[in-house]
């Protein structure tokens, strides 16, 4: 025991030297790491201080600019409010002037409407029409409008089937196309990605213009047959009417329209040669020919066979006309200018003779300056479905009896 204690002490003293060396190296390493961290922290503080100073300088530069921009915005807002007020006053003055001195009716009867030498002897032409229904209403005014959305190109057609499902929407984009969009309801059409909600119906022959019509589950449209307008053959300026079954997707009937040398009926819509329309009485066609290139013609069609039952030479001019529609057997022609201004119903023609030009209301459309590529009347809703430079618009109509004074 006496010898073991000194040996143990000597052994521990012999190992204490290396341990102290290792601790010294560890302390030096930790000091170097701490110094490096302190240096990085100092760099971060310098960068933060520099960025904060730059941000303060930027803020000091932007504050005056923001104040100037705010003042300019307020000035522009005040100017816009002033201009809006002046436009409203002008609109009220124009409306007042329209009521005090409406546009002159287009009463160029000539000899062709009164049965003079200009009357043709082809079947029933320019004869008084016997109404099949008791519909006796006419337009009092175009009351209001609602812009639904913008879909497609500047020219097209959107409509409902007056004899079909009340909610289904049909959209035919373009003046020469072969695919129609069918939406199950109006809400689906107004969605941002509306085309995804639509089913597509492809017709075997492309349509011409924007005169198509959906009626009783069928799509009626005009096609250009080989040698049609611009074809340079004996079928020059003739068009073929197609009756297409939308459910079966088949052509059930076709007929060459019985009018020679067709020209666009509307002076402001050069792509449409036959404009089909539907009202409480059935199916109609608006057209024009070179024989009288100044006025519109109207035909009553049989929706079953596409036969032409009656035809009329109307006193409504082609010049500056952009669209037309039929209500209770009365043709209403809408006129405009180029460049486009406020559209107006300036000429009407009642095939039954009940509505005289003196009783016809010459109405302006609500405050929108555009050009109608198509107008479709829905007798079930008494509304107009309009295509205005790619915008789809609904006009509500106020009606009155034809016998009532304006």
UniProtKB/TrEMBL annotation:
Keyword annotations from UniProtKB, A to Z: Coiled coil, Developmental protein, Disulfide bond, Glycoprotein, Secreted, Signal
Coiled-coil zones: 27-100
Places the protein is found: Secreted
Gene Ontology BP annotations: signal transduction
UniProt keyword Metal-binding, yes or no? no
Name where it mostly resides.
secreted
An example Gene Ontology cellular component term from the record? extracellular space
One Pfam family, short name please? OLF
Extent of the signal sequence: 1-21
Q: Does the keyword Transit peptide apply?
A: no
Q: Where is the Olfactomedin-like domain?
A: 134-401
Matches recorded under InterPro entries? Olfac-like_dom (IPR003112), Olfactomedin-like_domain (IPR050605)
Protein family: Belongs to the OLFML3 family.
Name it.
Olfactomedin-like protein 3
